Structure formats: C-alpha cells, structure tokens
Amino acid sequence: RLLVSLDAGLRLFIVLHGLSPRDFTWRSRDPRRRFFDYRAGMAWARHPRIRFVALEQHIAQALPALLAMDRAPLTWPHPLPDDCPPDDGARAVSSPVRIAFPGTAHSNKGFAVFESAARRFASPALDFELVGYNPVHRTDNAAVAFRAPTAPLPRGAYVERLRGADYAMLPLREDVYRLTASGSMMDCIALRLPLMTTPNDAVLALERE
C-alpha cells in the first residue's frame, strides 16, 4: 500500500498461493500477532490499484466470503507446464504397476495416506515411488514400502520419472486445497497421467469444466 501511495502510476498485483482457510477463520488473541496476520495484511492492502490474484477460478470465488472483499480477485489460471509433453499414443501398463506420489512429500498433499497405502498394499505386483523429495527426513528405502530419491530431483529428472509411472496418487487435503492450486496436479494433467486423488474443490472444478 505504501508503494502504490508513493507512485501514482503503480499498479500492484498480489498472487495468492498456498493459503489455508484456517489463516482467515482463526486469529490469535495476541494483538501483536493479529497486527501481522492474513486478515490484517489483506485489510492493509485494500487500495484501488492493488489487486489480488487467484490461480484457480474456484479460489477466486471462495475468497470474498472469507475476507469480506469489496471485489473478487482476478483469476490467472495455473498454466499447464510446457516441459511435460505427453507420450504419443497409448502404452501398456508396467509390470509391476508403478504408482507415483508427485512432488514434495508434504502432509498437506496427503503423503501420509500414500505412505500408509504403500505399506498396506505392498505386493510384487505394485511398485510405489515418491517422485520428488521428503524434506523432513531422508527415506531409508530398506525400511519402507516405497522407493524414493535421496536428494531433490532436478526438474527434468522429475518429469521423466513421473512420465514412467502408470498412475499418480495425490490425496490432497480438502481443507488446504480449497484455496491452494496444485502444481503437481498440473504436471499429471499435462502428462495425461491417471490420477488417484480425493474429492476437493480443484478436482470438482476441473470435472465441471
């Protein structure tokens, strides 16, 4: 707000990503924290030349009710990555069947569900793999039911390993992904990779479209 107040020709666009409804529905009793929380930040940023930008239409539709906005955010749809061209034509399912968890192993993306499924359905017929990285701890492949890299994958290596999967598993947390766009989901869509996921606003919006 200070920036646009100092320059009459400046327009500021704030891209909203990685939001949680809890950021707007819960507030600390500590006035020092309330001064810097999301609600306070959104209030301070109200200005005719400041616009909020959502990466999905369903996020833009949900935010005004949470924040009592005087106008809805702009929508810049999350683009499909151009480095994930799909394979030409159909290909046979692998043996064993490869099931991949794409991207960072985060609880918000449902990694614990993937981990549990890999243990529960461990079988020579199924090959579970984390195609990404676990930033919390290194995975001891001898002690778990899925394969995982020991270091973050470069983008090119990540795309190629994801392309080699038969299915992707991404059990996104509905409460988080109500307001968050998923880049991992876009990767799967770009690769035309069958995706096993949970009912959430992002998936339901794609189904409607």
Please characterize this protein's 3D structure.
The two termini are 36 Å apart. It is built from ten helices and seven strands. The strands form two sheets. The protein has a four-stranded parallel sheet with strand order 5-4-6-7, with helices on both faces. A three-stranded parallel sheet has the order 1-2-3. Strand 2, helix 5 and strand 3 form a beta-alpha-beta unit. Helices cover 34% and strands 17% of the residues.
Order of secondary-structure elements: HEHHHEHEEHEHEHHEH
| Morphology call | elongated
What can be said about the biggest beta sheet? 4 strands, parallel
Task: Evaluate the radius of gyration.
Answer: 20 Å
What percent strand?
15-25%
Strand order of the largest sheet: 5-4-6-7
On the 0 to 100 scale, the average pLDDT is 81
* Span between termini: 36 Å
**How many β-strand runs?**
7
Number of helices: 10
Residue ranges: pLDDT <50 for 5 or more in a row? none
> What structural class do you assign from the helix and strand content?
alpha/beta
Portion in helices: 25-40%
